[in-house]
Design brief:
Blueprint lengths: L1 H31 L11 H28 L5 E3 L10 H26 L2 H8 L15 H14 L1 E3 L6 H13 L18 H7 L17 H5 L25 H15 L13
Parallel strand pairs: 1-2
Helix pairs in contact: 1-2, 1-6, 2-5, 3-4, 3-5, 4-9
């Protein structure tokens, strides 16, 4: 048990460094080129929520890796994501292929959250002052990610691929930038890469946008499976859940799934578009 706790602690400390740097970079962009202005102080509870969430996530994944190694479940298929065929370009191609595979499973996990696990995912969608820091999730979501993403991807082995720290950091920055209320966006590259305008649609309070744009890295899977909504140039909807305010205390953050029924006054299943998935 102690080795697992040591692994979790190491992962947690590393996460604090990586996430801290990326939070600082993206928050600076938000303040330099804001599209929606939110109080800087409003991000403080987000930092607290994320710190606790990262600790829970680090422990959850350490336990998963330990259990999975003990069970010894072999992969079912090997994908050529090492991109050896790309020669020296493998340092660029391999991270992209890996991100595409991960985003495929994330896409379907995300749809499952909207369909069957909405009361927990609603914590993330309740955020009205959305930003890189204010994009936290409920603390039970690391377990859901293990079940719906980590286990399926563990059954798919990959060729040995070059580890490119710069690419990993860019993907981390993207995962936070897509929640940013800034005028900056990806321009023409947003046709294939998820940016803040594309993901804003996913968080929209407008019914026509419900259950759209599930991907976090690429728009490919949304396009392929019919859930893409490419935003118009000036399309920038408000975010949140009309009937539920975003949590501002630890108690509300943890307990929102328990009182969600009472807050919205109806069945916990998200209405309208969720029913067509």
């Amino acid at each position: 048990m102690l080795p697992l706790l040591d692994q979790a602690r190491t992962a947690f400390v590393a996460s604090l460094h990586v996430w801290g740097v990326s939070f600082a970079i993206v928050t600076a962009i938000e303040l330099l080129a804001p599209r929606s202005r939110y109080p800087v102080g409003g991000r403080l509870h987000g930092l607290l929520f994320w710190t606790i969430w990262l600790a829970i996530s680090s422990l959850t994944y350490a336990l998963f890796r330990g259990i999975w190694a003990t069970i010894g479940v072999p992969p079912l298929v090997v994908l050529p994501t090492g991109a050896r065929w790309a020669g020296p370009l493998a340092v660029v191609v391999a991270p992209i292929l890996g991100a595409l595979v991960y985003d495929f499973f994330f896409y379907w996990c995300h749809r499952a959250q909207h369909r069957w696990l909405w009361r927990y995912h609603a914590v993330h969608h309740s955020i009205r002052e959305m930003s890189a820091v204010n994009a936290w999730h409920h603390p039970v979501e690391p377990l859901l990610q293990v079940l719906l993403i980590a286990i399926p991807t563990s059954l798919i082995a990959s060729e040995a691929a070059p580890v490119v720290p710069v690419a990993l950091m860019l993907m981390q920055l993207q995962s936070q930038f897509i929640h940013s209320p800034t005028r900056w966006h990806f321009g023409p590259a947003a046709a294939v890469l998820v940016d803040n305008r594309f993901h804003r649609i996913h968080h929209s309070v407008e019914e026509r946008h419900f259950d759209r744009n599930f991907g976090a890295f690429t728009t490919l899977w949304d396009r392929l499976f019919g859930t893409a909504w490419m935003p118009a140039r000036d399309e920038w909807p408000d975010t949140g859940i009309a009937e539920v305010d975003q949590p501002r205390t630890l108690r509300d953050w943890v307990m929102l799934p328990a009182y969600y029924d009472r807050a919205v006054g109806r069945n916990v299943e998200r209405p309208v578009a969720a029913q067509r998935i």
